[in-house]
Specification:
Length: about 270
């Protein structure tokens, strides 16, 4: 009897009570123009699209092109983020602005940065902002370090998803901290998504093979020579990595193990 084939339609990513077919989340920065942004995101199959409110017009600048004309909220879940914020107060203000612009939308990606060169998170300030936003009714997906203890603290503070970095933002270095990520995944009661560091499709597959619920990326697609083709590759890598995780890989061994059994050979 054949093994049951993985039913991707039934294996959904659930965030804040809403289910999604795709486990790939994508950003909207660094593309050549809004047309390329739209085309790449369509090729990625992503359903959640994150937008830097401080850098992208989603209605706050009336005379400029509006991203939402290219990525309509009735087709995508728009995930406002606080990129560029270096203190808790500005991050909270940015989330509140996004809620006004998006008619009460309360799902946000929180990041409070601590260093302009590495873009590493200021974890204490992020936790401060998290508590204020959760108390104000926001559903917070939080960008944080790869510290398993802090990941637990963010979950306890009410985050609906924890998103540790795999490497510095925009570095393309891949998953440099697999054991930390694995520890976070093993102990989490909310979705865990790798956020930052992915450079190519194999990096995305590695993150998913560790058991992550999803991957959020921007630069890896937008700075590829062919962003639309890379978006398609990332879509396939996420699906393959998820299936590999569910299948369960073979054990690692120091020595060879024959593919065919030695017993019962004809002499």
């Amino acid at each position: 009897m054949l093994d049951t084939v993985h039913d991707s339609a039934a294996d959904r990513l659930v965030i804040a009570g809403r289910s999604y077919r795709s486990r790939l989340l994508v950003g909207t920065g660094k593309y050549r123009d809004l047309e390329q942004t739209r085309d790449a995101i369509e090729a990625s199959g992503a359903e959640i699209v994150t937008v830097a409110v401080r850098r992208t017009n989603i209605g706050q600048n009336a005379g400029e092109p509006n991203l939402l004309d290219y990525l309509p909220p009735d087709r995508y879940t728009i995930l406002p983020n606080t990129a560029g914020c270096y203190d808790a107060a500005s991050a909270v203000r940015t989330c509140r602005l996004a809620r006004e612009l998006l008619d009460g939308h309360d799902l946000v990606k929180l990041e409070v940065l601590g260093d302009q060169k590495t873009l590493y998170p200021d974890v204490p300030a992020t936790l401060e902002a998290t508590r204020e936003l959760v108390a104000d009714g926001f559903k917070v997906m939080v960008y944080t370090s790869d510290d398993p203890v802090m990941a637990r603290r963010f979950e306890e503070a009410g985050c609906v998803a924890v998103m540790p970095l795999a490497a510095p933002i925009g570095s393309g270095l891949g998953v440099r901290n697999p054991y930390n990520i694995l520890t976070i995944v093993e102990n989490a009661g909310v979705p865990v998504l790798v956020d930052a560091g992915v450079g190519t499709a194999s990096d995305a597959a590695v993150a998913m093979e560790l058991g992550c619920d999803g991957v959020l990326m921007n630069t890896a697609i937008a700075e590829a020579k062919n962003p639309v083709l890379m978006a398609s590759a990332m879509r396939k890598a996420i699906e393959a990595g998820r299936e590999a995780f569910l299948a369960g890989r073979m054990p690692r061994r120091r020595y060879a193990s024959a593919s065919s059994p030695a017993d019962g050979l004809f002499s």
